User: What shape does this take?
Amino acid sequence: MVIFLFTSSALGATEKLILIYDRGIGVLPLTLLNIYLIMVFVYFLCLQIFTRGGKVTESFMPGKRLTILLIFCIVYLLVGVATDVPIREVLSEYGIINIINMCLFVSILIWGIDLPEHLDALRKIALFCICYSAIYGLIRFIFFGGDPANVYDNVEHLNVRITYQDIGYSILFSFAFAYSILTLLKGRFSNLKERTFLVALSMLSIFNIIFSYRRNAWSGFIILLLWLTFVLDLKKKLLLIIIASIC
Assistant: This one.
């Protein structure tokens, strides 16, 4: 939920923003979020070791993930050295630790979501959190001047408000839009409430992407629309084109 609800970018802010991802830095060797992630990983690792009944399942074997992790870390380190990035920055909380975090996070997902019901629960939580963030972005944009971390206004003095400076939100909104459109066009909804939710989520996602004024977010959204035209049949492609033209 932290990933879905809390921004990780303070770029463009005129005042220092205290981000949840930085909590603990300066007092502890790692952030509180990193420590929590490691604790959850160790918990699931212990469950895998002591509850698998002596059987080594494919999901438990960490060999491939550790190999990929090691390769990514080495490549990241070599690129940093080759481009004259200080080793201290490469090894900082904004550097190589994030590759390790991703490996831990993926392992937790693989070990923790072993039933369709778990996956469905994660889907619902993710969609709810993204919808909440989209509504928050809309209200803040209309009534409170938008994201305070606004490079265009605070640095470039363009007098423009934005929904979210953090590009990660545009990625999440793009995923939410794609899921909503595919589900709606393929008729995969059980009731009117779910259909209304998906329509609202897709519209909110479009709004937050467009009014982020991030060119990379716009480019990614256009690529997403092109991809959707390839995976849908002709009738649904026409519906998608109508939606895209309205946007």
User: Anything to note?
Assistant: The mean pLDDT is 77. The first helix runs from residue 2 to 5. The chain has eleven helices and no strands.
